[in-house]
Amino acid sequence: MTNLKCSVTNCVYNDSNLCSKDEINVGGEHAKEQSCTCCESFCNCNHASASAKNVCQTATPQTKIGCEAVNCIYNENRYCHADHIDISGNGAGTAQQTECATFKMR
Question: What range(s) does the DUF1540 domain occupy (predicted)?
């Protein structure tokens, strides 16, 4: 698993810059730069349903990361194999306002 640091503080899954989901998905199938990726698992705190809040696990740095950004050097069979990634987008209101700050073009 990959160590994840998330600065998207208004995501319902963010717990002290860690993610309380045991697996997230990074989007950006045609991405050629960081800004074309996003955390598809983002859920805005202000719009989260009770059921979304109930699926939270204990937040840990190790997170399984599904990854659609097939042009990234860390993508292997649609999973991230970087030792560490950063998800950024503080103040994001939608998943499209987040990004994988670790994305590197092949």
Answer: 5-42, 65-103
Length of the chain: 106
Residue 106 inside a domain? The answer is no
CA–CA separation, 14 vs 33, rounded Å? 24
Count structural domains, the chain: 1
Start-to-end C-alpha separation, the chain? 21
Distance CA 106, CA 95 (A): 24
Is the pLDDT score of 88 beyond 60? Answer: yes
User: Over the stretch 1-35, which tens digit does the pLDDT of each residue have?
Assistant: 899 999 999 999 999 999 999 899 999 999 999 99
For residue 28, give every residue at least 6 positions away whose Cβ sits within 8 Å of its Cβ, in sequence order, or none: 36, 37, 38, 68, 69, 100, 103
- pLDDT for 33 equals 98
Which stretches within the chain are classed as H helix? Answer: 50-54
Determine the Cα–Cα distance for residues 80 and 62; give it in Å rounded to an integer.
12
Q: Decide: helix, strand or coil at residue 36.
A: helix
